[in-house]
Structure formats: structure tokens, C-alpha cells
Amino acid sequence: MAGYKIKDIEVLTGIKAHTIRIWEKRYGILEPTRSETQIRTYSDKELAYLLNISMLNKSGYKISKIAKLENDELTKLVWDLKYNSSNNSDDKLILALVELDEILFRDTLAILIKDHGLENTFTDFIIPFLDRIGIMWLIGTINPAQEHFITNLIRQKVIGEIDKLPIPDPKKDGIMLYLPEHEWHELSLLFYQFILRKNNINTFYLGQSLPYDSLIECVNKLQPKALMTSLLAAVEGSFVESYFANIEKDTNGLPVFAGGAQIMNYQDKLPKTVKVIKSYLDLENCIKSFIEEFSTN
Predict the structure, then answer these.
(1) Which residues have CB under 8 Å from 30's CB, separation 6+?
(2) What would the mean pLDDT of 116-137 be, rounded to a whole number?
(3) Are residues 138 and 186 in the same domain?
(4) Structural domain tally of the chain?
């Protein structure tokens, strides 16, 4: 069972710590455990309960009324909001993580994609959600199983959206997508694949943890016009610098579109052939430049 401090709860729910304290004192909605120095600690159950309250409150229910609801009434109202409404998506995603609720996460994601499209859903909802998960990792309040549970659900959804797209003409010049060896964080790469396919760009998707020798072998065999990758795993700056310098040398200066925290951390040390993807706008610009320079009809 996780133990959340009030500042953790503030980050995860978006409810100010001052407001939480008032709700506790005035309405008795939570009873956190306290240390000898009176530091509050909240459980998974209390976090889930507060997320439910937050959803109701954001939907127009006054906290004074929520506090008087019986459990059955609260459950019914929350159920209607969870599964019959597109509101409060941020709270629903966190709640699905905490409770390992596949149906809630799947349905919330499906509604977001239907209403906003995958691009906007990924940039406006999934990335901020993953940032919040990152905070939960730092404070030690989620375990690997929870993180794997959620990221694999997102992965399945993105792959499903990719499968709906037509396959581009294999005779067209293409981009090879891959992750370096020991890099397993695939969500960004899958999103890149979706955007490229949506723009009718031919791709060679090689996936996670590709050994360097295999990368060069595939480049020589398939002759892509550019590479696209991402690097999040913590590595030394010297590795990042030498890795991309070797790619420049071994591929005769093939353009590389690259995103991820480690790319941004060491971008000043990278060859000029590496085009850094910092945002969705950068991704769009990379695609535009590829179409203008390489893509053939």
C-alpha cells in the first residue's frame, strides 16, 4: 500500500493542499494517518476516494453536498461520471492507474481519441499523464506493475490506431524507426510511427532495443532515407555522443530524427545530422522536411 504525503496528493489530484485540509476539518471527508510530528499520510484508498470527490466537485457538485452522500449514492454518481461522461479525464486516468482499472482506462482513452484525435490526445492528455506517473515514481507511490499495466494499455491503443491506417507504398523512400539497445520506452516511437503513417510516409519499424550492428545491417539492406529514434534511459553523455557519431560515420551521414530526455540533455554534443524532436511541432517540422527533401511519388 502506498503512502502519500499531502503535497503528493496535491500533485496527483490537482487539489490544493490548503483545500484538502479545509475539507478534512470542515466536512471530515478524509482521515489520514499522522506521524508523531503530525505529518499526514494518505493510502491508495484515500487517494481514490479524493479523486472521486474531485470528479464530482469539478462536475458541479458542492463539497458540502458530497460530504453528506451515502456510499451507494456516491458510487452511483461517480459511476455515471466515469463511464458516461467525457469530463474529468485527468482524474480518471490517475484513478485507473491506482485501481488497475482496465475498463476505466480503456474507455477514457477511447473517448479522448474520438473527441480529440490521437495526436491531440497524446500531446494534451497522455504526455501530461505520463509526467504525473513520473512524479509518482520519484515519490515511490507506484510500483513497476502499475506502470507496466498503464503503459501497455496505451501501447495497445496506439498500435490499434496505427493498424487503422493504410500502409504507404513500399516503393516510396522511407524512414527507419528503432530504439537503441537496452532502450525499452516505446510509446514515443509508436506515436512517431502513427504520425508518419498518417502522412503517408513509408516506414520500417524495428522496435525496441535494437543492437547497433543489426541497425547498420538493416540500413544497408533497406536503404532508408532517414532514421528516427528516442532515448530516455539514463546513460552517460559520452555514450550518447559516441553513439550518434558512429551512426553518422557508418551510414554516410544519414539524417537522424531523435527525441527523448537524453537527446535533449546532450543535444549540444550531437552531430549536425541529428534533428532533435522536443515537441509535436518539431515532429511536424521533421516530417515536413522529409517530405520536401526525400519523399517520392
Answers:
(1) 20, 23, 24, 42, 46, 49, 50
(2) 80
(3) no
(4) 2
Considering the domain architecture, whether residues 29 and 124 belong to the same structural domain is answered as yes
CA distance 46 to 78: 15
Quote the domain boundaries for residue 149: 6-160
Length of the chain, please?
297
Residues 147 and 172 in one domain: no
- Mean residue pLDDT across the chain: 84
pLDDT digits (tens, 9 = 90+) for 186-200: 988 999 999 999 999
Per the structure block, which three cell numbers stand in for 181?
A: 539497445
Indicate the residue type of 192: Y
Last residue of a domain, one of 160, 188, 212: 160
Q: What DSSP character marks residue 42?
A: B
Instruction: Say if residue 23 is in the same domain as residue 151.
Output: yes
First vs last C-alpha separation in the chain: 57
Q: Model confidence at 295, in pLDDT bands (50, 70, 90)?
A: low
90 & 58 share domain: yes
Residue with grid cell 537496452, as numbered in its chain: 182
Q: Long-range contacts for 29-34 (Cβ within 8 Å, ≥24 apart)? A: 29/53, 29/63, 29/66, 29/67, 32/6
